[in-house]
Specification:
The chain is of the alpha+beta class. It is 29% helix and 21% strand.
Length: 214
């Protein structure tokens, strides 16, 4: 996996290069009217995502329109991931429990996208994600579709061949540990960089959800 320093540099460089990095702690409007954010870093101007189609764990297609109406946290990973993925999903599950009292129609969502379609079937990723929290969405696609989707979120992943002498299917996948933040319009609106703080994530997402209904 990428180390945390590399990921922070990657995320900051991508955002700065696109001219999208916003002052931390504000969401639109004036500082007096906007929620103060602790860990979510929003872009000054959210950007539309290009068309994409992922297959969800229940077999249905996940397209841009499906992500509208909620703030959504998107995390790339894979079920054979030894550390970053289970840790991240467990931390996000803690945040999900804290925002559970919000109305279901507007409650923030977590989307786990497997970047290992060779080994991760939709059914498999569904069982994996739901073991952390029943509300977590899970999806995957073929490699070209995944590469395009990841790029649109300024995230990266790369297959790492198995060590010499090991079975070929014992490969790993390096991937971004950062989390993409999509707004209720389904646009790329910001990022959460590790290390994750479940309580702060929950409080930020609750604040954003409440602010977006005004």
């Amino acid at each position: 996996m990428f180390n945390r320093t590399t990921l922070l540099i990657l995320v900051a460089a991508l955002a700065a290069g696109l001219g999208l990095w916003a002052a931390r702690g504000h969401f639109g409007g004036s500082a007096a009217e906007s929620p103060r954010l602790q860990t979510v870093q929003l872009f000054e101007h959210p950007r539309e995502l290009p068309a994409f189609s992922l297959r969800q764990s229940d077999g249905t297609q996940l397209i841009p329109g499906e992500l509208k109406g909620h703030w959504t946290l998107v995390f790339l990973g894979f079920t054979h991931c030894p550390d970053v993925c289970p840790t991240t999903l467990a931390e996000l599950a803690q945040a999900q429990k804290q925002w559970q009292p919000l109305p279901e129609a507007r409650r923030p969502r977590v989307l786990f996208v497997s970047v290992d379609p060779e080994r991760d079937t939709p059914m498999k990723i569904g069982g994996y994600a739901h073991a952390f929290h029943r509300d977590t969405l899970a999806a995957t696609a073929d490699l070209p579709a995944l590469e395009s989707f990841a790029k649109s979120l300024s995230l990266v992943f790369m297959k790492v061949p198995a060590a010499d002498g090991a079975p070929a299917d014992q490969y790993s996948v390096d991937h971004s540990a950062a989390i993409a933040v999509l707004d209720p319009q389904g646009r790329m609106a910001g990022v959460i960089a590790p290390p994750l703080q479940p309580k702060a994530i929950a409080e930020d997402m609750i604040a954003l959800t409440q602010a977006s209904k005004k």
